[in-house]
Each structure stands twice: as C-alpha cells, then as structure tokens.
Amino acid sequence: MNQSIVNQQSIKQFNTNKILKLLTSTEMISRAQLAKETGLNKATVSKITDELLNENLIVDLGYGMSSGGRKPKLLKFNPDAKYIAGIKIGGSDIYFTVMNLMLEDVFTQRIEIDNNDTVIIAELLKESFDRAIGTLNIDIKDIIEVAVAVPATVDIKGMIIHAPNIGWKNIDLSEEFKDVFKGIPIKTFNEANAGALGALHHVESPEHTNLVYVSAGIGIGTGIIISGNLYRGKMGLAGEFGHNVIVENGRQCHCGRKGCWETYASEQAFYDSLERKGLKMEKGIDNVLKELENNNPVALEAMKELSSHMNTGLENVARAMSPDYIIIGNKMRHFKGYLDIDDEIQGSKVLFVDKESHTTIEGMGFVIARKYLYRDRYDINI
Ligand SMILES: [Zn+2]
User: Fold this and answer.
1) Which residues hold their Cβ within 5 A of ligand 1, which is an ion?
2) How far does residue 293's CA lie from ligand 1's centre (Å)?
3) Dihedral (Cα; 279, 282, 288, 289), 10-degree rounding
4) If I label 18, which of 64, 93, 268, 293 is the partner at 20 to 30 A Cα–Cα?
5) Does this chain's domain 3-77 share its CATH topology with 204-354?
6) Is 331 within 8 Å of 217 (Cβ atoms)?
7) Comparing C-alpha atoms, which of 241, 271, 245, 269 is closest to residue 256?
8) Per-residue pLDDT, 13
9) In the CATH scheme, what architecture does the domain 204-354 have?
10) What does the pLDDT look like over 16-29, one tens digit per residue?
C-alpha cells in the first residue's frame, strides 16, 4: 500500500480513537463538545461520527438542553453494538458469559462438569450458547469473537500445548468448538494471562503498570504485565511461577519436577494435604469453608501450612519481578480470611480479586473490545 494512504488511514484511526475514548467515558456528548475536547475540526468530527452512527457504535439521542443558541444534538456510545462470548474452563466448572463492548455481562451461566472430554464440553457450550442467543435475541454476526480461558500452556498461535489439570494435550479449541459457535472466530487464552489483563483493566494507569496475576485454583498459573503489556516470553509460555521449586526434593509435580509451588499452595494441594492428615471430605470451596468456619483443627492446620507456602511463592514473585501489584485470583480468593498474607510484599501491593470468573473473562473481553474499537496495540494473539 502507498505510504501516504497508510499515513492517512493511521491519522483517521488516531482521530477516531480520540472520539471513541471520549464517547466511552461520557454519558452523552454533542459534536461541538467532541470537537472542543479533541481539538479536531467540526468537519472531521462530523465525518467520523457519521461513520460511527452507520456502524451502530453510537446512537443519536436527538436534541439536548441548550445554554442559549441552537440546541445541540447529543450522541451516546452504544455498548450493545457488538458482543463477546467469554468462557472460562476450569477443572470442575465452566463459566459462560456474553458481554457487551463495555464488558457488562448480559448473559452468564456456571456449568458444573465432571468430564473434561472436549466433545461433551462442546455439547454443554452449545446448549449455553443457544440459550444465550435466544434469551438475548441477538444476531450471531454481532458476536465478534469467542474467547476461551484454559489453565494451560498456550502457544503464540492459540494452540493448547498442555492442560495437566484438565488432561488436555495438543488441542486446538478453535477446531474443537468450530461447529458450536457457527463460524465466529475462537481464541484461546492462558487463564492466568487473561486474568492479568483483567486485573490491568481495573488499575488507574494501565500503560504504566507492572503486575503479576496469580491464578491459584486447581493449580497455580501466573500472568505477567510489564508496562501495560502482557509478557509472554519467546514461545508464549512465560509466567510459570507455579512450577518454581519451593521445597527441594519435595512433592512430585505433574510437570516432572519435585517441590513446585503449586503442589504446596493450590486448591488441589490443600485437598492432598487434608488427605495426608486423614481428613476425608468432599471437594469444593463451600465444603472447605464450612470446615474452616466450624474450626475443624485439621482443616485449619492444612490452611496454615498452605498460607505459609503461599507466602514463600509470593515472595519469590515479588523478588523476581518487583511489580506494582501482585493480584491473587481464582478459587484461592475464597480463603482470603484464612490466608495470612501481608498487604505488601517487598514493596509490591498484594490484592485479592473479588469475583472468581470476573477478572479472567473481563481480561479477554478487554483485549477483544479494545482491538475491535481502537485497532490498538493489544492486537496480539494471546
Ligand atoms: Zn511443577
């Protein structure tokens, strides 16, 4: 393409982005106000807003109040112009969500699973998807992408290399779920990377933020953000703090090493610990919380040990990365009250997320919505 056409296109995108950023951060705004706040001339603002109206990304609310003179016509961003389907697959459940361009959930469902066969999961997803489409009464073509988060190593192309806690190896979900989502593009994310991007969405100035998201569930995965960008490493597999050895010659990990952090501080590690201590109980967060609330001494002892191991791993993260934030998400967030973790470790602020699926699904939505709206730098295959 001719260089001057490329430049014209990038200037136009830059101007469109300025306008979209204002529209998405205000309730409603007039063209005159858009011109004033962006510094663009009125003709450019009119041309761009006409295009956005055509794309249904904004709606014309008609005439607003006037402070004297001609009444201004007000414009409003339309978050329901497009949707994103976000799916989080865990060891025992699946969250299926449809969100709009402002990442508001318009449909959400939790599905319990006891079988990780992709054919069975595809059937369950089809049920949820069909129900969502019917309930919301939306057109399939208005769903721009299906994003799937899996606790797995995922390569640059979106191929699952290994999901040890789900039992998947070398799986391409965009092929496995192709028929379910009727041609909508499917993108697979490493669950902790998606969580890290979701956490980034909540900090004040994301572009200047370094953070590590610790997804502590059935295993431990970590997602690393450096200066607002996801750090994936050479092969796309960076952030495996869960397999840092914290106990030499310790417990056998499925990765082949012994003494990995996740064999001491994950949800599974907790169940294993209870079993070693002779306490038999049904798995599940609610059951664990019940035992802890009833002051079961075995459960409390196991949690105390887990807390100590959690701290060792978090300190390793803090010392290695020195991020602004270390954010703990996934199942382990439920035990916040029982984990003795400082608010700050080696100068890094430690926070817990407050909604289990939220950060992960939101992180995928954040990337996809931004890419759709701004064609911006988050255009990466995560
Ligand atoms: Zn390991």
Assistant:
1) 243, 253, 255, 257, 260
2) 31
3) -130
4) 64
5) no
6) yes
7) 245
8) 87
9) 2-Layer Sandwich (3.30)
10) 999 999 999 999 99
